[in-house]
Amino acid sequence: MPVLRGFVERLEVGRAGRAVAAVLHDDGTRADYRLSDLAVNSVRAGEAAAQLALLRDALSRAEPIEIDYAQEAPQGPRDLERVTRITRDALLSSESTEAVPVHVVGVALFAHNQAGATAELSDTAAVTVLDAEGHVRQYLLELQIPERCVGQALLDQLCTAQHRGTPVVLHVAARELRIVGLEVGGAEATADVGSSTEVLDGFVEHIVCAPGLTAIGNSALVGFTTAPAFSGVGHTAALQSFTPRLRRFLVVTGSQEYGLFVAALRDKLRMRVLAGSVVQPADAAPRAQTAADAVEESLPTADHADGPVRMVCAAQLLAPLASMSRPVWLQVCRQSLDDGPEPAQCHDGLPADDAEVSTTAPTTAPRTAQWTGLACFNPGVYRFQFELPVTFEVNVDGRPLRLHPGDRGGLHFAHARLDGEHEVRVQLHQWTSQHRFRLDVYRIR
Asked: Minimal CA–CA distance to 437: which of 343, 365, 359, 377?
């Protein structure tokens, strides 16, 4: 007897214990099948009633069936011999799973309205991700698992993670690359940033957003020119040889890191980036030039990019002068504090973040000494905190500041609203080189 699979489109029950089912086959053809033994006095009445129930359920739930029928009659419906219902659910079990930290860059949905060899081909979602090693990978999400609400929740969370650029941990069946679980905000999502990382300081040159940066997805290509690394309390750069390089990063649009890159480009701010693994193409085959390639090649700096495209694991946005709370000292002159009333010389090794550096052997004779510092300040109200054993005056750009005594001897404070480059000068009386000059400057508003 011939065997076919398909879906019930119509079910008709008439007189004389007969029922006719219209079936759409997998190959797109249609045919009518009849049950002729529904009469109560029929020998096969119970069997026919059970077959009718299966056909009714398959029609109401849009589930596939498998049918056997007798050889075709010269005309009219075919005689139905056997009916088998095929489940719509994806019932595969997961013998072993693994956790994979990823960024979701694409979600594609597929509806399969066709019966397979043993079960209907279930509807699926293809999830494209960037893993911690920079590889583009694709996993399968079954949408017709028995727990439909769980499948829908997994799909919703994946779409949200793609939109926001949130890292997630996929729990996948290792053999079938099938998603069986999802973790958002778990510890594993941040524990692995790839096999090789690099911290880079610098400035954003350009951001390219275009289709084709990854297999499927919402990603941006960032051009980043490196700068000397900062160090110390005031964030200063060491006086060492340095050559700026143009580097390229891939960041998921909608993520917090992407927002920081946009702010850095708009406000011309400095950034510190933790660069992760090199982004690997989905395959090694050559591909056509994408819109992103064309845009990047048109930029003046495109030919000078140093190294491959790398993932962004973390991004830090810095204040205009690197420290919102402390100034950056460009020059400190304190020769008269350390060596006596000789011609003033500037302290070596500047810029510096230390206003208290001393240089040579002490001179014990009391004298009038002077400390002068030239610094850059972010806008705000700054406090000058002194711990000095002698009397002194302080002025900024030639204007004296009022001193306020602190809660213990020798402690004094002064305040000033500053923005940009200013000269701070401290005049000390009865000073000897055995005394210690203690000054701290920090922002309070």
From this structure: 359
Are 139 and 62 members of one domain? no
The better pLDDT of the pair 357, 131 is held by: 131
d(CA 219, CA 55): 49
Q: Which of 50-59, 200-209, 287-296 has the highest mean pLDDT?
A: 200-209
Residue 253's domain is classified under what CATH number? 2.40.50
Q: C-alpha distances in angstroms, 431 versus 79, 364, 373, 389? A: 117, 9, 18, 9
Apex CA 184: angle with CA 179 and CA 189, to 5°? 90
Give me the phi and psi of 124, to 5 degrees please: -140, 165
Residue 425 pLDDT > 90: yes
Least confident of 120-134, 255-269, 409-423: 120-134
Q: What is the pLDDT of residues 5-15, one digit of tens each?
A: 888 888 888 77
pLDDT for res 347: 47
For 217, the token pair is 């997805």
Q: Where in the sequence is the domain holding 382, given as residue range(s)? A: 328-443
Within this chain, do residues 332 and 438 fall inside the same structural domain, yes or no? Answer: yes
Please list, in sequence order, all residues whose beta carbon lies within 8 angstroms of the beta carbon of residue 275, skipping any fewer than 6 positions away. Answer: 197, 198, 199, 200, 247, 249, 310, 311, 312, 313
In this prediction, residue 27 carries a pLDDT of 79
Kindly state whether residues 57 and 29 are assigned to the same domain: yes
Nearest Cα to 23, choosing from 69, 90, 87, 70? 69
Q: Which domain CATH number covers 128? A: 2.40.50.340
pTM value? 0.57
- What is the CATH classification number for the domain harbouring 42? 2.40.50.140
For the chain, the first-to-last Cα distance in angstroms comes to 89
* Tokens describing residue 430: 């009865």
Per mean pLDDT, which of 163-167, 184-188, 206-210, 385-389 is the most reliable? 385-389
